[in-house]
Amino acid sequence: MFKERFKYYKHLNSIDKSDTIDLDKLDEYNIEFVKPKKILTKIYDNGHFNGLGLNNDLSSWKCYDITQIPGLVCIRNPFTEVGQKLWIKRCVANYTRKPNVLNIDAHHLLEADEDWWTTVNKTGDLNLRNKLRWSTLGYHHNWDSKVYSESAKSEFPPELARLSKTIIKVLQFPNDFVAEAAIVNFYHPSSILCGHTDQSEYNLEAPLLSISFGLSAIFLIGGASLDDKPIAILLKTGDIVIMSDKSRLSYHGVPKVLLSQYNEYIDDSCAWQPFKSFMECTRINVNVRLFQILAKA
Length: 297
What we know:
Blueprint lengths: L1 H9 L10 E2 L11 E3 L25 E5 L5 E5 L4 H14 L6 E2 L13 H8 L2 H6 L2 E5 L19 H13 L6 E11 L5 E4 L11 E7 L2 E5 L9 E5 L4 E4 L8 E6 L15 H7 L3 E10 L5
Parallel strand pairs: 1-11
Antiparallel strand pairs: 2-3, 3-4, 4-12, 5-6, 6-7, 7-14, 8-13, 9-12, 9-14, 10-11, 10-13
């Protein structure tokens, strides 16, 4: 069932008449299994959210339990305008620098003293720009062995760890998890992510966080078997998905990145223009892995 639905959405030309869940248009869909999740109503002081780019008013967050997939939670863009741009810049300019590992490293396209984003903007090399597919942070995922190792590890960005900690605290998950690994995926309109389950982490009870920026995409998620019928959710810029409980080991993938122009915010400043140009043809997805503090003791 999952593979058949994946093919359907992969070749979909318009989502207007599909059964894709749009969190901005729930009234039009008659979807009973999407319910607002109770979140903390406390308004954090500005100092708590400094550098995170989040809307301080938690009562305004649009947070949903997708009850057909137990443990799946979606937050519809809790970021401010400035906050989204802040995280886009971090993903594009900071998280692609050494010692983080990039998919293009194996091709030796950069000199030892070069970083990808600086070189792309200096040379205008679109081929180099479009070859970037992922960057790993903290514990660097081994794509062959599918494991994390102490021998392949660099410092995890503290601001991304704080963001992850804040999200799970707001959603009232256990407080003994810390972010120590992440994969930043860079999708283009022709990109897909085939159906899979995430089982590389030693603690499979910890939730997975997935944060999207840029182009919208269809996120397909089912159950523990490929025979389970999946549902499709339209993820837009700023959206956060948390996979916990049974959804933690559910098959999921991205069959479609939509060809809509990224124009979420109008900003013609010279500093923002290179990022805006990149995001008009890119979807960024930050997948954060949480490790349980006590598990290492």
